[in-house]
Design a protein that fits this description.
Length: 716
């Protein structure tokens, strides 16, 4: 066996759904890497590779065995291990037998405790194949999937039945068995272009061999080749594909050979149907891309196929037949839905249940309209935009009772916006309805207009308030009402409104349920619902902030200042940015440690029943210099903070606080806070309370973690 070589593990399966492939391959790569790392086996890059019929891991420069190390095992003292004649005693023989050697292998070694019997042993040197054979089956069998299958006699469970395994280290087959299948060097190619089996001479030859057999195993290369194939097919149809990154990711994992072809449909479809409807029919029902020219959609589509060519046109005609059928359905429903105005469908929402405990969508629409009006009024929205917001709130769910959404539920919101525009509704109204479901969570663009953003915000608030009121709080992986996603969207929408405080709006959202037709039960839960909902929104704020690179302690420092009485999301992100900006300052970090010390001193004082009154600061006679100096510095901060939003920005306020470090250090070095004199003690506690109020004005600095700091409640 060579010293360093490429390690390859390939699990050949029946076709795995595209949505499961990337995560499954990544999990398998992590498992292999963990086994190698725990065994101390040196290796290079770990690659996760996959196609619909295989999960694979390739590890470059993998050592052939675990490292060898020598150890000295000490046994009984020498005087107990050998008798006067130098013969091994029963103690020595027992020690040797325990380690599988003869007592003659023992030797004498000097230790700090004296002379002992010892045994020198070599550890490690175990071949990589033996390690994988022992350590890999368990965690691979426990891999998690949304759905799994059993096969054979039912003993094995995996995402799909496993039919072959390739396990190589360089040219050598590893003695591995998974799911009752013994590893070898035979893989399978494309089902029709090169089915095989194919013998893999060495791990480094595997990818090229499969390429010759019609399989592109690297997902990035497969995607690149598919993009080129789709572009060529669309060009042949006289246009270009309408970009759809999510669909591209999906279809790239549905094929082993990335080919593409173009198909056509009747010209009346792009003439009468909106592009969004065309695209939805193609995307969701045939995984196809709409083809467009300079003037708009063409009567053509491009689709990924698992073959390089279609000489007889059978594949193309099959796709065209299905696409034309779905477009006929869409055109029928579009024409039928156009016969009635969207506004005339509102009363039908009374028959559509939002949630069995939360009423109908008609009731939800009224609550959302009320909330939207409150938010718009509070933010000073112009009268025309408030009218548009109210109109959009009342119409935004009416597409739920259209035939188009009934047949194509993916068009919710979009269909409503299109129908509203066709009905002659104001563009502001149609746009808000169209973008109701944006953003879908932490990702995606915000709606393009303020009215649309406020409509989405009011809708998410109503959903969250109702969900929490009836106990649909997410827990673990369970979130049947998608409240986490609604919370993430709410935070992003609220961030776009600098003057918005969500706290009073949360209360109004809960009150919208408690005061309505749904009765006293929800009214009784209202008081406990608001703080839990506020905590949930803060948690979603933290989730988005963490995605953007914020540190957990900075998030905690900002979130500590907000809750059921104040939830200014835009302001919270500003404070977070200011913290990150000056985080590296030595003075700031030292002051953060001091702020934690002040918090602990004040907490200790409260436990003792001490009087803590900021008005008493500086009232003790004969106030020492360091105490007067800190009081003057705090008073200067208070004067600057009095300017409110017109005063210094958050970063400058934090810098001003950080500049107090020498003053704070002198205070703690020279002043005894818990002075025996009651007047002095109260004055100093009051001063620390005033300092804490200023120190925690932008964020709770006591939450900042300083390397090497410790919780300090020292009275000095």
């Amino acid at each position: 066996m060579s010293e360093r070589a490429t390690l390859l593990l390939e699990l050949g399966t029946e076709e795995i759904p595209a949505r499961m492939l990337p995560g499954a391959a990544a999990d398998l790569a992590r498992i292999v890497a963990d086994v190698l790392d725990r065994a101390g086996i040196a290796h290079g890059e770990v690659e996760a590779l996959w196609t619909p019929r295989r999960l694979a891991v390739r590890v470059r420069e993998t050592a052939a065995a675990s490292p060898v190390r020598e150890e000295t095992l000490t046994g009984p003292p020498a005087r107990a291990a050998w008798d006067a004649d130098g013969k091994p005693t029963r103690a020595a023989e027992g020690f040797a037998r325990k380690h599988g050697v003869d007592a003659s292998a023992l030797e004498r070694v000097e230790t700090p405790r004296g002379e002992y019997a010892a045994l020198r042993v070599r550890r490690g040197g175990e071949p990589v194949g033996e390690i994988l054979a022992r350590e890999l089956p368990g965690p691979v069998a426990r891999m998690s999937f949304p759905k799994t299958m059993r096969w054979g006699d039912g003993r094995f469970r995996f995402v799909r039945p496993v039919h072959w395994i390739v396990a190589l280290h360089g040219e050598d087959v590893l003695p591995l068995e998974l799911f009752g299948v013994r590893a070898g060097r035979e893989t399978r190619g494309h089902r029709t272009l090169g089915p095989g089996p194919h013998g893999v001479p060495a791990a480094d030859a595997w990818e090229d061999l499969l390429r010759e057999a019609g399989v592109v195993v690297d997902p990035a290369r497969r995607r690149e080749r598919l993009v080129a194939a789709l572009a060529e097919a669309a060009s042949g149809a006289g246009g270009r594909i309408v970009e759809d990154p999510e669909l591209l990711e999906e279809v790239a994992d549905m094929v082993e050979f990335p080919g593409a072809l173009a198909g056509a449909f009747d010209e009346r479809f792009p003439r009468e149907l909106p592009p969004e409807v065309l695209r939805t029919c193609l995307r969701h029902h045939q995984k196809a891309f709409l083809v467009a020219g300079d003037a708009g959609p063409l009567p053509a589509f491009a689709v990924a196929v698992n073959v390089p060519e279609d000489p007889e046109g059978h594949v193309r005609r099959g796709h065209e037949w299905v696409v034309s059928g779905r477009l006929e359905d869409a055109l029928f429903f579009w024409r039928e839905d156009r016969k009635r105005k969207l506004a005339d469908r509102f009363e039908e929402l009374a028959g559509v249940v939002f949630h069995r405990e939360l009423g109908t969508f008609a009731e939800k629409a009224r609550r959302v309209a009320r909330l939207a009006d409150l938010v718009g009024g509070g933010l000073g929205l112009p009268a025309g935009e408030r009218d548009a917001l109210d109109r959009a709130a009342r119409l935004c769910r009416c597409d739920l009772v259209t035939g188009l959404v009934g047949e194509f539920p993916e068009l919710q919101g979009v269909a409503g916006g299109l129908l509203a525009r066709a009905d002659g509704e104001e563009e502001e109204v149609a746009t808000a309805i169209y973008h109701l479901y944006e953003p879908a969570g932490a990702e995606g663009d915000l709606p393009p207009t303020r009215v649309a953003r406020l409509l989405g915000l009011a809708d998410r608030l109503d959903t969250l308030a109702g969900g929490f009121a009836v106990g649909l709080v997410p827990s673990g992986s369970r979130d049947p009402f998608a409240l986490r996603r609604a919370g993430l969207a709410l935070v992003r929408l609220a961030e776009a409104e600098p003057d918005l405080d969500l706290a009073p709006v949360l209360r109004e959202a809960v009150a919208g349920y408690a005061g309505g037709e749904l009765g006293p039960d929800l009214r009784d839960r209202a008081e406990e619902t608001v703080p839990r909902l506020a905590a949930f929104v803060l948690d979603r704020f933290g989730s988005i902030a963490e995605r953007r690179g914020a540190r957990y302690d900075e998030i905690a420092a900002v979130a500590a200042l907000f809750g059921p009485d104040s939830l200014r999301i835009h302001d919270m992100f500003r404070r977070l940015a200011a913290l990150a900006e000056i985080r590296g300052s030595e003075d700031f970090l030292a002051l953060a440690a001091a702020a934690k010390r002040v918090r602990n001193i004040l907490a200790q004082a409260r436990e003792k029943g001490e009087t803590i009154d900021p008005a008493l600061a500086g009232t003790a006679p004969g106030t020492p210099g360091p105490e007067r100096e800190l009081l003057a510095a705090v008073e200067e901060l208070e004067r600057a903070a009095g300017g409110g939003d017109a005063g210094p920005g958050y970063a400058e306020r934090l810098r001003a606080i950080a500049r107090l470090r020498p003053v704070v250090d002198r205070f703690f070095d020279e002043i005894l806070v818990f002075d025996p004199d009651e007047t002095a003690r109260r004055a100093r506690l009051g001063l620390l309370a005033r300092f804490a109020a200023r120190a925690h004005e932008v964020a709770d600095l006591a939450e900042i973690v300083v390397e090497g700091d410790r919780e300090d409640a020292s009275p000095r």
